[in-house]
Amino acid sequence: MKVERPLNFEVFQRIEGRADVPVRITGLRGNSVALTVANAAGKKIMRSRLMVEGGAAETILEDLPQGGWYSLVLRGRELARFGVGDAFVVAGQSNAAGHGDGFIADRSGMVSVRTVSGRWKLAQDGEEMPAGMSVGSPWITMGELLAVAEGVPIGIINVAVGGTSTEQWRPDAPDNSLYRGLKEALSERRVRAVLWHQGESDCIGEVSTQRTFENMQTMITQSRAEAGYHVPWYAALATYVNGVTAEKMEPTRAAQKLVHLHALAMPGPDTDTFVPLSMRHDGTHFGEVGLKVHGILWFMALRFPR
Length: 306
Prior knowledge:
- The protein has 9 helices and 14 strands.
- By secondary structure, the chain is of the alpha/beta class.
- It has 2 domains: 2-83, Immunoglobulin-like (Sandwich); 85-303, SGNH hydrolase (Rossmann fold).
- The chain is elongated and about 70 Å long.
């Protein structure tokens, strides 16, 4: 027997506090099975009888209230735990991907991350973490703060890649694998927002303000069109590279501010200002304190948007 959906510790995006959760189970015998959903306290909140066809059964758990972890139980056996809360897609370059100085685990037990193999797992160790999250990321700290503050599970899907520029994230880039990864993440499910932290490569490459803005405008606009709904975006002010002058950083910062001005994305944190050199373990990537500050800044941007 295999549960194809929901995956263990998968997070489904709440809309007005509720979500429809797809269920598909294969490898079944018989004509029908009784499926039960229990809440975190073990109380049964939903029961459904599924017809089995060709060894498989599927249904939609409709209007499930926010919360978790829920247990999916069949024939007395817990098949998966899942949550209804907030899911985020993270994109950008290395400080979005991770690459910090030390993995910071979730202490709430309510933060889940999609792994490199496409599974989901609790963010309690670095095993199978995507991108550079295994060596240090702000997103788990952000997720823990949100989970505690809002009382719902938090899911993180990280498609960021270190050293990438906005040129490479364009949908029409010669190798558009970055955009395809973003598109696929958004096509799989609704999310609360895309969190974008990038700018160092545009700064080093001296990409003009207008070109950086156009790149982001194209990426954001097309991602929304292809997702089929108005995906919220948050974009950080992020250009800092040790040894690069403020004058060379300004064109990229100006482009990021234009993205906010034109309402393409809500403002994320200004990590140029609030994560100084002293919080960067190698001059560019964040150390342990910088990672925690970065996570807190994203929490503030999401909880108290400007």
